[in-house]
Design brief:
Elements (H helix, E strand, L loop, with lengths): L5 E9 L3 E8 L4 E8 L1 H4 L2 H14 L10 E7 L2 E7 L3 E3 L7 H20 L12 E4 L4 E3 L5 H4 L17 H4 L6 H17 L9 H10 L9 H9 L11 H13 L22 H8 L15 H12 L16
Antiparallel strand pairs: 1-2, 2-3, 3-5, 4-5, 6-7, 7-8
Helix pairs in contact: 3-6, 3-9, 6-8, 7-11, 8-9
């Protein structure tokens, strides 16, 4: 028993940060999923603090396309989150048609939109964090928890796969709602093609491809343009919010062969743009400025700098397959 009310029944999943158990809540007489932090993270006070704050924020989210968080607690050094139990499969295990892929993307987008409207960024959108229930409902899990794992004291190998990370996350920089849009674009690419767009022998090599290499097209009519817009290197060139993305996804179901996606060039829209401290730091380091122009091939020294910077973030070459899913 945990918290004098949750009876642990069986282990149903495991991941880099935590183990997941099926349990019965005796107070409300219902089954739940309980995510328990692994011991090595429970002993890190800084991580635990971030973990609890983010989990409590996620507990305020209630949406049909989100795995809802019911409770957050601690008992005898065991830190846990009580969540809605969703029985089904993760998107990583699904094979999809064109219409299924777009319909799932719409539902995922609506869940993410609800979180963004509450100022919660997921930061780890990937197929393993998207569950399709037995009755066909699509739900996104682990909202808000990813931010805790980006603590300076926790190496990012506890996180999900580098295959879905945005260029700004790969650089170790600031991430916002548009980082989730990028990761969703990569997830949509995989739904449509059965593979990820960037691969490599190491996580560092894959991260550098997100930063430097052109995104391949999934070749699925209007959806191809939607995916490519989601996955622009520059956040300013992506969809600026989930509502814009949802509108185009719905349009693609109606007119799958029509290319109606509008791509904007923020540099050509007339306004004077202030150079931020981050932009100036990039210029000084001779990193290509993220204006939406084509990224030029960087010289050997720059590539080595990127490799060195990224090593600190991706020091584990093994992807945790099926992380934190339960089926």
């Amino acid at each position: 028993m945990i918290g004098d009310r949750y009876e642990i029944l069986e282990k149903i999943g495991t991941g880099g940060m935590s183990d997941v158990y099926k349990a019965k809540c005796h107070k409300l007489n219902r089954y739940v999923a309980i995510k328990v932090l692994k011991q090595e993270f429970s002993e890190n006070a800084n991580f635990v603090s971030k973990f609890r704050i983010e989990a409590q924020a996620a507990a305020g989210l209630m949406h049909p396309n989100i795995v809802n968080v019911y409770d957050v607690g601690e008992e005898n050094g065991i830190y846990y989150i009580v969540m809605e139990l969703v029985e089904g499969i993760t998107l990583k295990k699904a094979r999809l048609s064109y219409k299924e892929a777009v319909s799932i993307a719409i539902q995922v987008s609506m869940g993410i939109e609800a979180a963004h409207n509450n100022h919660i960024i997921h930061r780890d959108i990937k197929p393993q964090n998207i569950i399709i229930s037995k009755d066909g409902k699509v739900k996104v899990t682990d909202f808000g928890i990813a931010k805790a794992a980006t603590s300076n004291t926790i190496t990012s190998n506890v996180m999900g796969s580098v295959h879905y990370t945005s260029p700004e996350q790969a650089r170790g920089g600031y991430s916002d709602e548009k980082s989730d849009i990028y990761s969703l674009g990569i997830t949509m690419f995989e739904m449509l093609t059965g593979r990820v767009p960037f691969n490599g022998e190491t996580t560092v090599a894959i991260a550098i491809k997100h930063i430097q290499e052109e995104m391949p097209s999934p070749k699925e009519f209007s959806v191809a343009s939607i995916v490519l817009k989601c996955c622009q290197k520059s956040p300013d060139r992506r969809y600026q919010n989930m509502a814009e993305l949802i509108a185009d996804l719905k349009q693609s179901l109606i007119n799958p062969e029509e290319d109606f996606v509008v791509n904007k060039d923020p540099d050509m829209e007339g306004g004077t743009r202030m150079i931020s401290d981050e932009d100036m730091a990039q210029i000084k380091r001779k990193v290509p400025y993220q204006s939406g122009r084509e990224y030029e091939e960087q010289d050997h020294d720059e590539t080595m700098r990127l490799r060195s910077d990224t090593e600190a973030m991706y020091d584990n070459d093994e992807e945790a397959e099926g992380e934190d899913d339960y089926d």
